[in-house]
Specification:
Helices cover 39% and strands 27% of the residues. By secondary structure, it is α+β, with helices and mostly antiparallel strands. Among the domains are: 1-60, no CATH class; 184-279, Beta-Lactamase; 307-404, 2-Layer Sandwich (Beta-Lactamase); 489-633, Heat Shock Protein 90 (2-Layer Sandwich); 646-771, Response regulator (Rossmann fold), CATH 3.40.50. A five-stranded antiparallel sheet has the order 5-4-8-7-6, sandwiched between helices. A five-stranded antiparallel sheet has the order 10-9-13-12-11. Strand 9 and strand 10 (197-200) form a beta hairpin.
Length: 779
Amino acid sequence: MPISKKIIALLLSKNFKNIAGIIKAKKSDKSISLYFYPKNNRYLNILTDYQAFFNSINHAANFGIIIFNDKGYVVHVNKTTCQLYGYSFHEIIGMHGTTFIHPQIHSDFYRFINDVKADEVFQVKSIEIRKDGSTFYSLVEGKAIQTKYGKFLTAIVFDITKQTEKEEELNFQKTLFKKVFELSPIGYFIYDENLIITDTNEAFLKQLDIQRETFIGMDIRSIKDKKPFAMLSSIFQLKHATYEGYYTSTLSGKTIYTKAQSIPFKFKNKTFAIGVSLDLTKEKNIEKELTEKKQFYESLFNTALTGIIVTDTDENLILVNPAFAHILGYTVDEMINTKLSNYTTPRQMVMFQKQTEIRKKGKSSVYEAMLIHRNGSMVHVLINASPLKDSENKVIGTLGIIVDMTYQNFLLKQISELTLKNETVIKEKQAQLQAIINHLKMSVPLLPEVTHLLFNQNLNVEQQNELKKSLDRYLFILQNTFKQIEILHQCEKSNFKIRNKPITFEQFNQQVSEWLKQKAQTIYTPFSFDFHPITIKDTILFDTDSLLKALDFTINNIVIKHAANYLLFEAKISQFHLLLTIQALKKNNDELIKFAYFNDKTLCYQVVLKLLSFMGGTLNVDDQKIELLLPFKSYSEEQKNKISQTSLQNNTYTTKIWSSFNLMIITSDLYLMQLIESLLIPTEIHILKAPTDSKFISFLMQNVIADIVLIDDELFENPLIDYRSIIQRFLPNVPILGILKGNQKADFSYEGIILNSENFQNELFAMLSKYLEYGKPNQ
């Protein structure tokens, strides 16, 4: 550049303002000096203004602007870029782009250089490195700018760190939710506002034993079990809803006890809901089993004829059953939380304390002791004592089983009677068994010989197994035939009892459904079924057990004789009658089976017809349908009719003639109790209402005095409470009269029978007069 050359230039001041002027250079022997002379020129002022305008926009931007040359070196940045990277303006100028870009993005940077050179627009997500070594996420957009000085590359840098972190967090949450959704042992399913299933996890599929392919896309409105439908339809109100109870799958037929909830939510202007299902079937079965066991043991504890006590290590009575309280003349409430020393002598108490020390060592023992009755008399008892331990195997008390030796003769007599009764029963069963064997020999005289001969042949294992299956199936058919003959024989002799009991239709549906499930799993009569239950919630009087006997024989005939494997059951109500319709299909065939082998010529038909006749019903069979029509009565109507059958105005028996007598009534039938009370009001007999549960024995222990006992035959055969033995023990020589309904068989154990029929009043007074003072007609 010649020394005399003048250059007009714009210089950038410290405060980033442009100043127009002239630069002159002067040379000396040792150096060159540059002189700047500010100049006011209209064009330069315009240029200065444009430059100032550009710089103000450049530095006011909230995103970074970086200008690279075609080699990737920085030639210009704005203020935001300096702030993003932590460099000063002079530090970052001249840097290569890879200096402040993360190494894993270098390949993208070189691609950026090449793409921009080719006039292509470039965009990439990058990781940038600050001066202090920290990093931030960025979105970089690049474009080439052509000038007279060459091609430059302009990069716009946006800091997207917060956005990226939120995306990563959302992705993490999405992945986490997906893992929880897929791997959770709790069942999940998702459905939309049209009640269409859109997704589910494996746990829910396993709960109901269903396939994903058939479940996804299913319309919830098509489910047959509507109990959880109210919960599922809460999506329309955007409300959280729950359901707890049994549910039967439409697709698999499996029934589970579930605790479920539906949680609606909005997504992209659409409504969805997450269904959550916790399968509590095992827990419910365990709870039911524990409840039944608890009731059984409580009943056993409260009705036991032997005394049972639990004491702590200080000989305090923690638990006492009614039998032990009766032995000493107290009530249970009077003895609970009292000291054992209150009921024995000091010398005997020393012996009890020594026994407690034996318990603390974890040992059991049997010993005799003397206790003091409430009236002061001594009671001789036999005690079988065992240690009670906690979860840490530490002895915390004693369990004592106490037998009143006073009742030894009674117990020996009971044992003798039971032994004699058992021997009689055994002989009867042996005779029945011998009759069946003889019948078998007559029916299939060569069966043992043929079986022996076949098994002596050179048969392989598979052939032997097939032979066994065939024989087992044949024996099952014979057994079923003998059962039918036995039922028919009982009906002909009027020995078959029809026991109508109160039952709700809901209980009826559940009982029949559970029975069908068990029956369908029988080896010899396997089948699938569909049961359409009754939806009414009334309570009726009905003998479900007799109906199930009839169904058992009918199903055996359909499955064995007609080779059916899919049965359709439909229950309906028609004018106080239960109509049960049965249809059947064969495997891989949609046509209904014609019941050619179920007619009045077959034994099965005759037995079922006889059973239904005893129940007051009818049997109708056409080619493809079996109909069982059975009458029932509303529970309240039945009991109301009982009372209305007897007019108290027709009572001609003397009043007050039995005012000095006590009558004990044992029945759970409230209407029967009211009827007897109404009929006996004029006689002024004292009526004792006995409880029919575990409190019965404690009731008798309260020094109850009765001259005669009336017991409902429905309770007489209770497996948990032997009413007859207990009454005979506490009320010896008191006559027991049984009240029978319908065509029930009279039990030989009763001293007298009263039929609950139209002549109930006359029979009641006649039987009471037989054992009490005879009543004379009113004058």
